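Entry 14. Ran structure prediction on the chain below.
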Amino acid sequence: MGGACSRKPERDYEDSPCRGLSRRFCKSGSLKWWTSSFAYPSVDFHLRKGDCPSLLELCIKKINEDIDRYNTFSMLPRDISQQIFNKLVCSQRLTSVSLEAFRDCALQDLDLGEYAGVNDSWMDVISSQGSSLLSVDLSGSEVTDFGLSYLKYCENLLSLNLNYCDQISDHGLECISGLSNLTSLSLRRNDSISAQGMSILSGLVNLVKLDLERCPGIHGGLVHIQGLTKLQSLNIKWCNCITDSDMKPLSELVCLESLEISCSKVTNFGISFLKGLQKLSLLNLEGCLVTAACLDSLADLPLLSNLNLNRCNITDDGCEKFSRLENLKVLNLGFNDITDACLAHLKVLTKLESLNLDSCRIGDEGLINLAGHRQLKCLVLSDTEVGDTGLHHLSEFKNLRSLEICGGGLTDAGVKNIRALSCLMCLNLSQNCNLTDKSLESISGLTRLISLNVSNSRITNSGLQHLRTLKNLRSLTLESCKVTAYDIKKLRSTHLPNLVSFRPE
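Output, structure tokens:
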């Protein structure tokens, strides 16, 4: 089928680096459920036409161009040295040679995530920042346990990112055991860290955020972090070694607000250990071996607002317990065997802002139960049995910002019901092969749209005229339609000045 709707969840949800494609680049679904990343601002020299750059901006730009002429920046104020460093990284001009100029500059933030060439030889200069250094991102580097030992001199370090650092093991963790001021530590996708090695983390008593995603050897090691009572965020997604026994130590983490344990072997019994986490607001159980019975335990979490049960074993049996989760704002029930009967129990969840029912056996009549959800902003109904009648029930969702109904049986008559959703910003109607140019006419009044996908439909070049009013449109996808790239480009040049992404291209 042409024009894939780009929404199916991939089996790898890792974030991609902001500086382009890395060796570990991966795709992610169109809706990102509770992703996290380490990102630090860099200097942006892109000025609007007519703006005059400041003298500092011009100097930093010139230094960046002539970096090989400078031996040291240690005499400069720290904030200026920091901006020079950031600019070199952003422009990919920092090398092991030019790095030497930053020795003893007292820099605070070194964002070298996925930066080419970073290895142990860089660590001496990095550690020379001493007590000034607050944040280091070495993700995707070739740094080893030996290189990590240099950081012991940076006793004020608050944030350390070691994602995808394949050569760091338990011994490397020993090297950072003295960094008791650390509040954020990320060790994603590390095959060498063991349960025994995690005992070293027990001394990092100020940790607020810990990321152990895709660390397959940590089963039994979570007992060592039960004393980290300041921990607010724990990510152990894609650790298929995690079982119910690993959940018991987590009951001691009384400050925990965010817990991600998707794609593990945790069952309803393991979830019962989370009852005491009174501050927990985000829980990701995607792909876990839980059923609706786990809702008994979750009902004891008064602040739970974000719940991901995508690809679990949820059926209509026990769904009446959803009515007890009255504070839910985000609920993902995609790819579960639930029907309209389940939606009847979501009727009281009037605080919902986002609901994903992707590939569930939901039909038109079930959507009647959502008619009173005035706060709903994002709704996914792709690959369901929802048709034209169902869209009529959604016509009073005045705050809806994002709507996905891919692969359904929609017709032009059904799309007319969308005309009243004036707040829509993202609309995906791909794979509805009966839609024609009349559908584009129906949505021509949705002037807030920034993304529109009507791929694999009967849209033609003639229908493009109806998009002239969508001045805010930035992304337009019409693959496998009777539309040419030439006509889209013509439309962009004359009517859609903000359109930056389009298909066919």
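The radius of gyration is 26 Å. Will compare against last week's run tomorrow.
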